[in-house]
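lol forgot to send this yesterday, sorry. struct tokens for the thing we talked abt
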């Protein structure tokens, strides 16, 4: 596990995967929960150029130490950070709060918070440094305590406010939360959806039927809807936008950051029942001179789905889709059997890729023939444009109402 105290992180430089500095860490955003459950860290507030503060989701963070914070992705949303309902700033709001030490019943002040990454990849505030009041100008006793050993910071246990519902749902995965939302009255469903942070709402939207997706997107302000679409996987965002009118679709695309909107625009060019229409445009792409050690580091990124993490794709620059010439793919099983210093280009599988226009029937036969969980999609110019994953295929093979049937069952 990785643990760091937030006050010691304040002001640390934040670097992208290439080692370029993107800004400085100014705060950590967390979501408090009911009872003694540790708060979940949602992301970082990072100060970039011109003192602009932006939000970086914790899923982008790959390393935190005494000298720097390292991100796993160089793509950042440069919209100015705006704190949302249900969010708490550790340095700005949590420190200096008065709490009660449960064992002794004594009052104390929070002076620091310990941020820890669990084996699941999630970050939580698991410990607090609290100080009792001193006498005659002296400092009181300092305690290092687990979060559950203090009282006075958690959300209230009673009541049915939106914050309480959110706290109840904190532990649910995206699919289960989607089912829970569908069981709520429409008004409350929309209140909870609006109160979720962008990344969480994006994950949930990907698990909802199209009608529910459209209903929630419709109650969001345009700027918020664009933010949520940016956090969605490009293929899910494209599927959702495809259901809108041309006017609404283009308006939201214009509000999205250009780097986030471009892969969605590319996917919207393809028919939804083809490889191009169901692929994701953000698989793990490496240059020919990357080592196996670099490849394994990339597939460990917590934001990757298991199917996308199953293999890497090697291409000539540029590394964003559509890439330079596609050279081949390497399966993670092969990577684990080779020395870390070996070039990934030396262990490539020359499996014939799918074409973007390949119909769904051809895609399913391809997966069955080669026993794959993911497959490359390459255009007629030899460029990698995306990858189809087995969950994408299943989504399109199952009946349109399969999510509803699962919920009713």
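and heres what i got for the seq, position by position
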């Amino acid at each position: 596990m990785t643990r760091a105290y937030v006050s010691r992180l304040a002001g640390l430089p934040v670097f992208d995967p290439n080692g370029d500095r993107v800004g400085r860490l100014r705060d950590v955003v967390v979501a408090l929960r009911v009872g003694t459950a540790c708060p979940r860290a949602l992301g970082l507030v990072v100060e970039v150029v011109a003192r602009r503060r932006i939000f970086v989701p914790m899923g982008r963070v790959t390393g935190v130490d005494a000298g720097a914070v390292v991100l796993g992705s160089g793509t950042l949303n440069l919209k100015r950070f705006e704190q949302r309902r249900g969010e708490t700033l550790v340095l700005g709001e949590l420190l200096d709060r008065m709490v009660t030490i449960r064992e002794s019943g004594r009052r104390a002040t929070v002076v620091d918070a310990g941020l820890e990454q669990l084996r699941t990849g999630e970050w939580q505030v698991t410990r607090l440094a609290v100080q009792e009041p001193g006498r005659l100008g002296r400092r009181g006793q300092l305690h290092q305590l687990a979060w559950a050993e203090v009282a006075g910071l958690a959300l209230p246990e009673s009541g049915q406010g939106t914050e309480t519902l959110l706290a109840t749902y904190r532990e649910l995965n995206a699919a289960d939360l989607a089912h829970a939302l569908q069981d709520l009255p429409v008004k409350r469903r929309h209140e909870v959806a609006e109160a979720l942070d962008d990344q969480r709402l994006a994950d949930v939207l990907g698990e909802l039927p199209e009608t529910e997706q459209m209903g929630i997107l419709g109650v969001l302000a345009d700027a918020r809807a664009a933010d949520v679409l940016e956090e969605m996987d490009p293929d899910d965002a494209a599927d959702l936008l495809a259901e809108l009118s041309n006017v609404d679709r283009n308006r939201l695309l214009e509000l999205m950051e250009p780097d986030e909107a471009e892969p969605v625009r590319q996917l919207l060019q393809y028919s939804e029942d083809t490889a191009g229409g169901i692929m994701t445009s953000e698989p793990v792409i490496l240059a020919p001179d990357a080592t196996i050690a670099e490849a394994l580091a990339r597939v460990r990124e917590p934001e990757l789905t298991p199917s996308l993490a199953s293999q890497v794709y090697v291409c000539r620059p540029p590394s964003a889709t559509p890439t330079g010439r596609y050279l081949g793919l390497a399966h993670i099983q092969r990577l684990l059997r080779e020395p870390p210093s070996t070039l990934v280009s030396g262990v490539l599988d020359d499996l014939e890729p799918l074409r973007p226009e390949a119909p769904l029937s051809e895609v399913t036969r391809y997966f069955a023939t080669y026993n794959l969980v993911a497959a490359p999609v390459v255009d007629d110019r030899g460029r990698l444009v995306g990858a189809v994953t087995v969950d994408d295929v299943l989504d399109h093979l199952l009946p349109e109402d399969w999510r509803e049937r699962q919920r009713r069952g």
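The CA atoms of residues 4 and 347 lie 38 Å apart. anyway ping me if u want another try
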